[in-house]
Amino acid sequence: MLEQTAPQPKPSQATRLIALADEATCWHTPEGEAYATIQVAGHHEHHRLRQKMFRQWLAQRYYQHFKGAPSAQALSDALAVLEAKAHFEGDEHHAYVRVAEYGGVIYLDLANEHWEAVAISPTGWQVIANPPVAFRRSRGMLALPIPQQGGSVKQLSDYINLDAKREGDWHLLIACLLAMFRPKGPYPILIFHGEQGSAKSTTVKLLRMLVDPNKSLLRAAPRDERDLMIAACNGWVLAYDNLSHLDPWLSDGFCRLSTGGGLSTRELYSDADELLLEAQRPVIFNGIEELATRPDVLDRGSMFCLPTISKENRRTEADLWQQFEHDRPYILGALLDAVCGAMRDLASTKLESLPRMADFATWATAAEKALGWNSGTFMKSYTQNQEEANDLALDASPLTGPLKKFLTLPTATPSWTGSATDLLMKLHDRADEQVRRLKSWPSTPRALSNALRRLAPNLRASGIALTFSRINKGSSITIEHSCESPTPAAPPTPSPVFQGVRGVDEQGGVGGGDLFEGQLHLVTPQFMKASVGSGDGVDEFALHSHEEVISDET
Question: Looking at domain 153-387, which CATH architecture does it have?
């Protein structure tokens, strides 16, 4: 009799799923995330193994072969094995969001259904399929249009509500936009403020639609730093709308995103495993008030004050967005032309002096030729914006006034050295009670030292240099007033100081009746000091309006 062979057991659903997954290439990122690259309709797609899209692809392949549906447990078991293969047998690659660089070429993910990207090089740009880098898609990402040749960045001015009198704001805005196409930062923080009806929200939407469109273009302020970093890991441009205030932790978080930083927190459903989130992203936010007052944010930021739109110049959103969608491919193409120019001239671009955001400034300067700007246009605009930001930081600090009073006393020496305790006492004596009650007023020497360290760059720009040192296990602060006001050659006598005065020029000089009366508030303390003939009481002399001066005369 012939021996009967035992029938072979049928492979399980999980085993069949694993075999079907051989059509995909499993790999992992440096952070340990497991991915699979699959081929769909002639192009490659990259998905996380635990992502919904890959599960659907795997289930669809199972149905095509076996005309049935795998169980949830079989899918889970198969994915566990595939994750192990990705970690131990697969190669290591980076998974990029929207912008990447490889071999000296910048790739911009169009995020369309064909998974196309724009390859940008010093010689030009072109739309390609299957780029050599792996882009990942997060939920909510929208497609960019296919960029077109023949456009101009000036077309964007039809949609952005900038002050026409401040041409430097336009140059700075375009430079910030170009920085968003860089694969690495630091990135400037774009800060918009203005009254209701100045199109702040629309402006932020328009800018994001040119670089990183998303179903949720604008977001409310994040609840904590974890939410901020998760948003940064899943999007390229972070845009926050109508912020009413900027908490210190959020201010620090924006700074870390601008120049690069990370967050370590406990991974969900684990006791000891850490979840590491690291990102460097462009950030945009807006608000009615001047929200950014901390020096570290202002140092990284570019501020724009939007004017109110008159009734005659208003337009419907439907009309605006319809026209913008028509122009968007051409504006995007013009921006990519400028990116090519910046890449081409970056190596030969040298700045006389490097600002805080040196990489950003060098990149923007390298793009000037491609944009048709004169040499030095960007740095002139950027320097002016930084000076205004510096003034804002000083005005927002309660320490500025008492510190300047302390340094401008008649008995003050060119420099002062002492402990933070001594300095706090001196500043306390020169601050009004209302100022001392402010929450931002330092109540301890340590708090004063920390506040001065933050304010030191802004004070240095205004002529006050701070030096912190430790001597014999103690710390000391040295303050030097390096800005001495010149003394007029022939100071006028006290009595006729304001006789015939009807205006002040922009340099603080007093003019005759042809100048605008409303500029009398520009009279400098140095002129007052020289005119009165004594330094006593000059710092307390307040000029709030020209009406007060006239009333004093009469």
Answer: 3-Layer(aba) Sandwich (3.40)
Where in the chain do CATH 3.40.50.300 domains reside?
Answer: 153-387
Sign of torsion, CA 152 153 154 155? positive
Domain at 397-481: CATH code: 3.90.1150
Q: Residue 186: is the preceding peptide bond cis (ω within 30°)?
A: yes
Q: Per the structure block, which two tokens stand in for 66?
A: 């076996």
Portions of the chain given CATH number 3.90.1150 = 397-481
Residue 99 Ramachandran class (φ > 0 left, ψ -120 to 50 alpha, else beta):
beta
List Cα–Cα distances, 515 to 139, 178, 500, 544, in angstroms.
Answer: 59, 41, 11, 18
Is pLDDT above 60 for 232?
A: yes
Phi, psi dihedral angles at 262 (to 5 degrees): -145, 175
**pLDDT level of residue 536 (50, 70, 90 thresholds):** very low
Q: Pick the more confident residue, 13 or 289.
A: 13
Sort 511 into a burial class: Cβ within 10 Å, 0-12 / 13-18 / 19+.
middle
Query: pTM for this one?
Result: 0.76
**Residues 445-471 pLDDT 10s:** 888 888 888 888 888 888 888 888 877
Strand 474-481, strand 415-418: pairing: antiparallel
| Of 82, 85, 147, nearest in space to 112 by CA | 147
Alpha-carbon radius of gyration of the chain = 30
Three-class SS state of 52: helix
| Residue at token pair 């911009």 | 108
Write out pLDDT tens, residues 7-63. 667 889 999 999 999 999 999 999 889 999 999 888 999 999 988 899 999 999 999
User: What amino acid is encoded at 185 in this protein?
Assistant: G
pLDDT range class, residue 187, cuts 50, 70, 90: very high
Q: Whole-angstrom Cα distance, residue 467 to residue 479? A: 7
Looking at residues 131-156, what average pLDDT do you find? 94
Using a 10 angstrom Cβ sphere, with 0-12 exposed, 13-18 middle and 19 or more buried, the burial of residue 5 is exposed
Long-range contacts of 431-437 (CB under 8 A, 24+ apart): 431/398, 431/401, 431/402, 435/398, 435/401, 435/402
Residue 421 pLDDT > 70, yes or no?
A: yes
C-alpha span between 187 and 466 (Å, rounded): 28
Name the average pLDDT for the chain. Answer: 81
Asked whether the beta carbons of 232 and 259 are under 8 A apart, the reply is no
Nearest to 213 by CA among 132, 159, 294, 144: 144
